[in-house]
UniProtKB/TrEMBL annotation:
The keyword Phosphoprotein is assigned to this record: no
This protein's UniProt keywords: Coiled coil, Membrane, Transmembrane, Transmembrane helix
Example GO molecular function: signal peptidase activity
Coiled coil (residue ranges): 183-217
Record's GO cellular component terms: membrane
Top-level taxon of origin: Bacteria
Record EC number: 3.4.21.89
Biological process per Gene Ontology, one example term: signal peptide processing
Matching InterPro entries: Peptidase_S26B
Full protein name: Signal peptidase I
Record has Disulfide bond as a keyword: no
Length: 250
């Protein structure tokens, strides 16, 4: 069970890490690249679709369309292009519509009549070559919607802040656990050293007691020998042929 929990924790940690880093990278790329006519991503210009003017046939609002730069003179009827609008109601915005026909503007410049397939209504002005940003290649559904959500406060909290906070919390818990383990091991080592010192002290004390006991035994033996020597007498001649018991030999 402990091993399984450890494995689950490792998987969750790696998932949060990858998700957090992915969200951060996606945010940086999207902010610096999406809807930037002068930027490209792997050779494509990404734009977020803001309306459903092409939802009937090709893509919906919130999708991310990828536009490939192309020579406008090679475009033909039926191609979908992204261009900078000069219409009065959305001047300067990037629009992705289908070419209905090739034409020229009032000054004789070549251009295109474009329209949205949902309304099937022609755009107000002719799109001349200088305003063409590129040809539509493909789209990624709902990426634009997610990016728009990510730019909001709830999106930032859910997709970036909370994952990073969970990672920090997990690492904080691990750090506390490792610190407690370290303190426990340190305490165990100190206790082991104390036990070893106490053991050595007990052995020294035992050895001292044995030495004192041995010294005591040696002292008793010496006293006994001295007593025997002091009681030894020699017999002498008293001048009359009798042995004298008053002479001591030391």
């Amino acid at each position: 069970m402990k091993k399984a929990l450890h494995t689950i924790k490792a998987i969750v940690t790696w998932f949060l890490m990858v998700a957090s880093i992915g969200m951060m990278v996606f945010t940086i790329i999207s902010v610096t690249t999406f809807d930037q006519p002068d930027r490209n991503l792997f050779g494509y210009k990404p734009f977020i679709v803001l309306s459903d003017s092409m939802s009937k046939t090709d893509f919906n609002a919130g999708d991310l369309v990828l536009i490939k730069e192309i020579d406008p003179s090679t475009l033909k009827e039926g191609d979908i292009i992204a261009y900078t609008s000069t219409d009065s109601d959305n001047y300067g915005e990037t629009v992705t519509h289908k070419i209905r026909s090739l034409t020229t503007d009032a000054n004789g410049n070549p251009g295109f009549i474009t329209y949205g397939t949902t309304t099937n209504t022609d755009d107000e002005t002719v799109v001349t070559h200088e305003y063409v940003l590129g040809k539509y290649e493909t789209h990624i559904p709902k990426v634009g919607t997610f990016f728009q959500f990510l730019k909001t406060t709830p999106g930032y909290i859910c997709c970036i802040f909370i994952p990073f906070m969970l990672l920090i919390l997990i690492h904080l818990i691990d750090s506390i656990r490792l610190f407690r383990k370290y303190k426990s091991e340190q305490k165990a080592e100190l206790q082991a050293e104390r036990d070893e010192i106490a053991k050595e002290r007990a052995e020294s004390q035992k050895m001292m007691e044995e030495l004192l006991k041995l010294k005591e035994q040696l002292g008793t033996t010496t006293i006994g020998v001295n007593s025997n020597d002091a009681a030894t007498y020699t017999q002498g001649n008293d001048g009359e042929g009798n042995l004298s018991t008053d002479t001591k030999i030391f």
